[in-house]
Amino acid sequence: MPNYENFFAFEYWQYEVVRHMFAFTAAVFAAAFVYFALTMRQVAERYRLASIISCVVMISATLELFLLWLMWNRAFEFDITTMTYARAEGFIFANGYRYANWMIDVPMLMTQLLVVLGFAGRDMLSRWWKLMALGVFMILTAYIGQYYEPQAAGIIDESAFGFWFWGIVSWIAFLVLLWLLYKNVEEGRARMGGEASKLMGAAWTLMWITWTIYGLVYLVPGIPGINESSTWIVIRQGGYTFADVTSKAVFGVILSYTAMTLSKEPERNTTRKAA
Ligand code: RET
C-alpha cells in the first residue's frame, strides 16, 4: 500500500513546511558536498577515503531529497474551496526513496567510521562485513514493513501485522548493530590521542542518537492518537530532516575534522598494523 501520507489533506502551512524541509535538506547536502570536496586535500592519504565517502553520501542524499521534493509537489493539489492540499488523482508520494538512499548511505557512513577509527586490512574487513550485513538487513526488512503503514494507521481495515513484524525485526537488527558499532568505536578510540578520541566520542553520541530517531520515526503511523494527525506527518518528516542533516552532514564534518587532526600527528600517517 502507498505510504500513509497519501491519505491525508494538509493545511497550507503543513504542506509548505514539508516542501521546504525537503528543499532545505537537498540544499544542505549540495553545500556540504562542496565543503568535503574542497577540504579533501587537508586529510592525509590514509584517511582520504573518509572524505571521498562523504562526497558520495552527499550526492546520493541530494538526489534523494530532490526526488522527494518533486514527488511531494506532484502528488498533492491545492483546493481553493477547502484551502487544503489533497492528493492529486493518479499520483502518489512515497518514502521509498529514503530506504533506497539508506542502502547507500548506511554502509558508507559505517565504512567511513571504521576508516577514521584507523582500522585497516583484514581486521577492517572482518569488522566491516558484519556491520554491512546487519545494516542492509535492517533497511530491507523495514522497507517491507513500511508498505503496511495505512493498515497500521487504521486507514485501511486490514491486518497491520506486516508493519509490526518487519518493524520489530528491523529494530532488533538495529540494536545489535548499535552494540557492534559501539564496540568498534571503543576499540578504535583506545588507540587514539586525546583530541581525536574526544572527537570520536562526540561523533558516536551523535550517531546513535540520530540513528535512533530514524527508528522512532518509522513507528509514527502505528501509534494510536498521533497516527490520525496531519501535524504529526509534518513532525515525522521533520524527524527525518533533522536526522538526515545531522547523521550525514554534521557527522561527516566531525569525522573529516578528526581525520584532519589525526593527519597532523606525523606518527599516524604511516600504516599501522592492526591491533
Ligand atoms: C528503520 C526501521 C525501523 C527500525 C529502525 C530503522 C532505522 C533506520 C536507520 C537509518 C539510518 C539512516 C541513515 C542515513 C543516512 O544517510 C529502518 C527506520 C531502527 C538507523 C544514517
From TrEMBL:
Localization, UniProt: Membrane
Transmembrane regions listed in the UniProt entry: 20-38, 50-72, 99-119, 131-148, 160-182, 202-220, 240-262
The organism's place on the tree of life at top rank: Bacteria
SUPFAM superfamilies: Family A G protein-coupled receptor-like (SSF81321)
Membrane topology value: Multi-pass membrane protein
GO CC annotation: membrane
Primary residence: membrane
Gene3D superfamilies: Rhodopsin 7-helix transmembrane proteins
Family: Belongs to the archaeal/bacterial/fungal opsin family.
This protein's name: Green-light absorbing proteorhodopsin
Organism of this sequence: Jannaschia seosinensis
Organism lineage string: Bacteria, Pseudomonadati, Pseudomonadota, Alphaproteobacteria, Rhodobacterales
